Amino acid sequence: MGQNLSFLNRTVQKDMARKLESLNNSYLMEFLDNIIALCEPDSVYVLTGSEQDKEYVRKKALEAGEEIKLKMPGHTIHFDHPLDQARAREDTFILSNTKIPYVNTKPREEGLREVLSLLKGVMKGREMYVGFYSLGPRNSPFQLLALQITDSPYVIHSENILYRNAFEDFAGNKPFLKFVHSKGELDIKKRRIMIDLEDNTVYSVNTTYAGNSVGLKKLALRLTVTKAVKEGWLSEHMAIIGFDGENGTHYFTASFPSGSGKTSTSMIGKLISDDLAFIREFDGLAKAVNPEVGVFGIIQGINAKDDPIIWEVLHKPGEVIFSNVLMTSDGDVYWEGSDLPKPEKGYNYEGQWTKESGKPASHPNARFTVPLTSFRNLDGNWNNPEGVIIEGIIYGVRDYNTLIPVTEAFSWSHGVVTIGASMESARTSAVIGKADELEFNPMAILDFMPVSLSVYLRNYMEFGKKLKKTPKIFGFNYFLKDGNRFLNSKEDKRVWVSWAVKRVEERVNALYTPIGLIPYYEDLQILFRKVLGKEYSKEDYEKQFTIKLKKYLEKTERIMGIYLKFNDIPEEVINELEMQRRRIMEY
Ligand code: SPV
Ligand code: MN
Hints:
By secondary structure, the protein is of the alpha+beta class. It has 17 helices and 33 strands. Strands 1, 4, 5, 6, 7, 8, 9, 10 and 11 form a nine-stranded mixed β-sheet that branches. α13 packs across α14. Sulfopyruvate (SPV) binds next to α7 and α8.
């Protein structure tokens, strides 16, 4: 190994160093050497993705107390700090010298200085883990490489479950995204996540909650969105699901803000992705792959009746990391909304817990981490390097007052603008802050937006123009209420999906309204009988599908107000909103 890699030479065992060297990636070696010099770990463990490496990390997570073994084989539990239970918006910065509306930025030099000083010597007395991964299938035009460095075996264990190991793919001087994480002292006041777009690197410290620490998940999303808008493809906060119709499987992507039905929608079809999608154009078609190979899902409310597939995954032997649920003395777990009797006592992220305390047993953002291969509804194309053809896109929100359960857009630009880019959704506990406030959240991706929405939406428009046939765009809302009562039951989403599939197959007509195309009562009546074996009354239809014109108008104007503030917003965005406004006014 080169003389100048002195830090690497001192900390990496000879056999691992030889493997690194065999990659012939001098940029990688220098980067590692610099990070080792910065963080000063006692030793470095390089993962090549072998079963032995994976087992080593699992063992280290137990030894370090970052995970505790449960009685079911393969199951462990992890606790994050009580103040580190969700994504930390306020502590996450895009390093940029220009301010971007709706994006939390910090001048680059200042941000780097701050985070590098927090990382200085942070791994003294600790081992550093280095993992090599692929976002998207290997041997695929979608593939992006990513390197994770961390001192947390829980973090690297999570990466091993959620992403494809791809050590060999780093051979040659191939570029890769870089993630440097340290749990630090878990001093939450010093929690910082700095996203350096210029150097494709994210630094994260004093946190272990996966959304802040597991680099390839939401930290990578900021880097991949940046890359996508430069290169003319889409990197989205979307599930990918196959739905069977009369002439085969139709693939949809679906974006919903966290905690608003994305994972449960993924479970009613054939699963490819529950959270993220890379979408590229090939031969005039939109094709998608999942950057991930696992699920980091919200556990609250998962029960045997509503979520039989996830329930099964969480109750059979196999790799599962539970986080921030309740652990009982017999090595079992319990979470709120499981419909099981509540234990009298147990242990959770705050310490000892008793039922008597009246406090929730698990955190509302408690989660499970599992491989995709545990799901019995996994689609055969889940790892197809060519991706699957996308025929439908669903943008869903948690809106109690305005939006009807399902709408179809008139066109790509109408759907992108008045449905996707106009999303407003009630905040959930996936983000630190007050729940239930209605938040502007275009494409459910605002939390992860690294560039101006003008740039992002222009790319969407241009992407649509490259397609011979654009996917049909649907707006979903599972949460419409009449007073305090939800107007739909959880299972009704199966009917909205079936209707969307019928539209893709061009088997039913739709009713024109000023805000888009909506189902005819008769078609839903048939689908309710066929899909759910239940009757659907005209009265229910009228309650659910009557368009509250005044509320829709207010919403359109509100969104227009937002986009008019961007001086470089694509004209089409304003035009679509203006046309929608006029249609509503003239109706
Ligand atoms: C989400 O909140 O959108 C998630 C989990 O998928 S996190 O990793 O926290 O982003
Ligand atoms: Mn998500």
